Amino acid sequence: MAPVTSLSASVHQRLADALSAALPEAAPADPLLRRSDRADFQANGILALAKKAKANPRELATKVVGSIDAPELLGDVEVSGPGFLNITVTDRAIVETLAARAADTDRLGVPFADAPGTTVIDWAQPNVAKEMHVGHLRNSVIGNAVKRILEFTGEKIVSRHHIGDWGTQFGMLIQYLLEHPHELDHKEAAEGEAAGEEAMSNLNRIYKAARVLFDSDEEFKTRARRRVVDLQAGDEETLALWQRFVDESKIYFYSVFDKLDVEIHDEDIVGESGYNDMLAETCRLLEESGVAVRSEGALCVFFDDVKGPDGNPVPLIVQKSDGGFGYAATDLSAIRDRVFNLKADTLLYVVDARQSLHFKMVFETARKAGWLTDDVKAVQLAFGTVLGKDGKPFKTREGETVRLIDLLDEAIERATAVVREKAEKVGLTEEEIVDNGRQVGIGAVKYADLSTSAVRDYKFDLDQMVSLHGNTSVYLQYAYARIQSILRKAGDARPAAHPELGLAPAERALGLHLDQFAETLAEVAEEYAPHKLASYLYELATHLTKFYDQCQVLSDENPTEVVENRLFLVDLTGRTLHQGMALLGIRTPGRL
Ligand code: ARG
Question: Which residues form the Arginyl tRNA synthetase N-terminal domain (predicted)?
Answer without folding.
Answer: 9-89
